[in-house]
């Protein structure tokens, strides 16, 4: 998989990187259910709640931390099945070039250490158009389970 150029956006007091994921089927049958593809793809660097807990002027701080940075997304062949109440999603883990520099800028300005989120993109959903928030590794492990072995291989064969 190649590096995909990201477009940085401040949204609702958070910070996300949009990118053009290679085309995937609109609907897949996986784990006994039909899943619908998301229409837009992004990686959340810092969610609204995370930023609100850190500073009242999140937008300004985010804007300064992201200045002159270029973001590149590299999707990994690691997938998770996430569940929250009646909502389910399939996410793909990613590497985000530029994210570390972004967080270093935030930490310098806010004088605090910020936990890095598990970088991921939501590919497919059931019961939601938005996805399920996983701002920390603990969230990822509490709400999700890795898709491995033959299931992962089947998923990869459909979306590659």
What oligomeric state best describes the polypeptide chains here?
Answer: single chain
| Percent in strands | 35-45%
Q: Uncertain segments of ≥5 residues (pLDDT<50)? A: none
Query: Using only CA atoms, what is the Rg?
Result: 16 Å
Structural class: alpha+beta
- Total helices: the number is 5
Q: What separation lies between the terminal Cα atoms?
A: 9 Å
Largest sheet: 7 strands, antiparallel
Number of strands: 10
Instruction: Give, in order, the helices and strands.
Output: EEEEEEHHEEHEHEH
What is the helix content? 25-40%
Q: Would you tell me the overall average pLDDT?
A: 91
Overall, the morphology is globular
Structural summary, described in words:
- The chain has 160 residues and is an alpha+beta fold.
- It has five helices and ten strands, in the order ββββββααββαβαβα.
- It has helices at 48-54, 58-66, 99-110, 137-143, 149-159, and strands at residues 4-5, 7-11, 14-19, 27-30, 33-37, 41-46, 72-84, 87-97, 120-126, 144-147.
- Strands 1, 4, 5, 7, 8, 9 and 10 form a seven-stranded antiparallel beta sheet that branches.
- The chain is globular and about 45 Å long.
Give me some keywords for this one.
5 helices, three-stranded antiparallel β-sheet, 10 strands, seven-stranded antiparallel β-sheet, alpha+beta, 160 residues
Write the layout of secondary structure elements.
Elements: E1 4-5, E2 7-11, E3 14-19, E4 27-30, E5 33-37, E6 41-46, H1 48-54, H2 58-66, E7 72-84, E8 87-97, H3 99-110, E9 120-126, H4 137-143, E10 144-147, H5 149-159
Antiparallel strand pairs: 1-7, 2-3, 3-6, 4-5, 5-9, 7-8, 7-10, 8-9
């Amino acid at each position: 998989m190649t590096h995909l150029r990201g477009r940085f956006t401040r949204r609702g007091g958070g910070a996300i990187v949009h990118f053009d994921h290679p085309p995937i089927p609109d609907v897949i049958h996986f784990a006994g259910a039909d899943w619908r593809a998301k229409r837009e793809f992004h990686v959340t660097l810092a969610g609204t709640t995370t930023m609100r807990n850190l500073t009242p002027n999140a937008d300004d701080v985010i804007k300064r931390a992201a200045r002159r940075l270029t973001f590149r997304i590299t999707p990994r062949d690691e997938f998770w099945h996430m569940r929250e109440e009646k909502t389910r999603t399939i996410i793909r883990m990613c590497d985000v070039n530029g994210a570390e520099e972004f967080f270093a800028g935030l930490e310098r300005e806010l004088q605090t250490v910020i936990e890095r989120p598990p970088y991921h993109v939501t590919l497919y959903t059931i019961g939601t158009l938005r996805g399920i928030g996983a701002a920390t590794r603990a969230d990822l492990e509490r709400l999700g389970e890795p898709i491995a072995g033959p299931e992962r291989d089947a998923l990869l064969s459909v979306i590659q």
